[in-house]
Structures are given as C-alpha cells and as structure tokens.
Amino acid sequence: MKVIDHVRLMGRYNRWMNERLYAAAARLEPEQLAADRGAFFGSILGTLNHLMVGDLVWLKRFATHPAKHTALDPLKAVSMPVSVDQFLWDDMGRLREERERLDAMIEAWTAELSNEDLDHMLDYRNTKGVRSIKRFGSLVLHMFNHQTHHRGQATTLLSQLGLDMGATDLLLLVPDDIES
Q1: Is 174 part of any domain?
Q2: pTM for the complete prediction?
Q3: Do 27 and 163 meet the contact criterion of CB atoms below 8 Å apart?
Q4: Could you give the CA distance from residue 6 to residue 162 in angstroms, rounded to a whole number?
Q5: What distance in Å separates the CA atoms of residue 98 and residue 24, rounded to the nearest whole number?
Q6: Is 177 domain-assigned?
Q7: Is residue 180 part of a domain?
Q8: CB 56 within 8 A of CB 87
Q9: Distances (CA, A) of 68 to 71, 75, 76
C-alpha cells in the first residue's frame, strides 16, 4: 500500500471510529460525560474536546502547505485553539456536529493529497512557540496516531461505564490486496 493510500484509509478510519464513539457517548447523561474520570483530559467530554483541539491545530498548520488544499479553506475562519485542554464545546450535541463537519473535511482533504505533497517539509511552531521543520507526511501520520491514542482513552472510559464499542481495529477497514 502506498503511503498516500494509507493516509486516505486513516481519514476513513477516523470518521468511522468517531461515528461509533459519539454514538456510544450519546447514550450517557451530561453529568456522566463531564465527570472527571482521571484521564489525561479528565472526562469523556474533555477527551473528545482534546481530540478536536489536536485536529484543528494540525489541520490549520497543514492548511499552510503550498499546494493550498481547498478542503481546508473553511479553517481560515476558525481560531487556533489556545491550549491542548481547551474546551471548545461543553454541549455534546454541538461537539458532535462540529466533529462530523471536521471529519468530512479531513476525508475530503486526504482525497486532495498527493504523494508529492507528503514529501514537503513543513515549517511550523508548536503550541509553545518552538519552531520545527518536519516532513509533511510524517506529521499527517502523527495526527492520525494522536487521534487513535486518545480515542483509545475515550473507549476505555466508555467501557468502564459499561458501554461496549465492539471491534475498533483499523484492520476492519484495510482492503484485501489479493491479486488474481
């Protein structure tokens, strides 16, 4: 599988997992979602907000790519989050709506990417203002890995409340590569 195909697969996996995660979380009361459960970002709601923050930070950086991927144009009107633990939305309905919009944008953006785009060296500053220059493709894969990491935390929190997410493996979306 080419790296670009893997990036597109990760875009589909992101949407698929978030749909399942938010469907499970919707079965909880607001107090259950907001309760501090000792996770990195406290609550289920805090973890879901952190996922949005991380995606927005990375996608806004990715929008500076010289290829000017049009799928990311709507981010021009979105402010850069100020901290990794920022609560963007404390209402689960609004958070889910924004998550769905962002996931559609991510999939559209991955469809626009090319192998050449992934070789670009991205010059950016982290949330503390420290400058880095790294290969764009590596940063894209990092964003998807970050999502998987924190969704794993959210699914653990949901499991502790008796909600079963079922199988969550990327393997379920990996196409068979059988040549005849």
Answers
A1: no
A2: 0.94
A3: yes
A4: 33
A5: 17
A6: no
A7: no
A8: no
A9: 9, 12, 12
Rounded CA gap, 55 and 144, in Å? 9
Enclosing domain of residue 81: 3-167
Please determine, for residue 42, whether its predicted confidence score (pLDDT) is greater than 60: yes
Query: Where does the chain have alpha helices with state H?
Result: 3-25, 30-34, 44-62, 92-112, 115-118, 136-160
Q: Is 151 part of a structural domain of the chain?
A: yes
- Helix H or strand E encompassing 122: strand 121-125
Give per-residue pLDDT as tens, 49-91. Answer: 999 999 999 999 999 999 999 999 999 999 999 999 999 999 9
Tokens 């950086």 map to which residue?
61
Residue in 16, 55, 25, 60 with CA at minimum distance from that of residue 159: 25
How many angstroms separate the first and last alpha carbons of the chain? 17
**How much is the pLDDT for 180?**
45
- How many domains are contained in the chain? 1
Dump the DSSP string for 139-171: HHHHHHHHHHHHHHHHHHHHHHTT-------GG
Q: Residues 6 or more apart from 6 whose CB is under 8 A from it?
A: 141
**Half-sphere exposure (Cβ direction) of 143: Cα atoms closer than 13 Å:** 25
Tens of pLDDT, residues 117-150: 999 999 999 988 999 999 999 999 999 999 999 9
> Looking at residue 158, which CATH number applies to its domain?
1.20.120.450
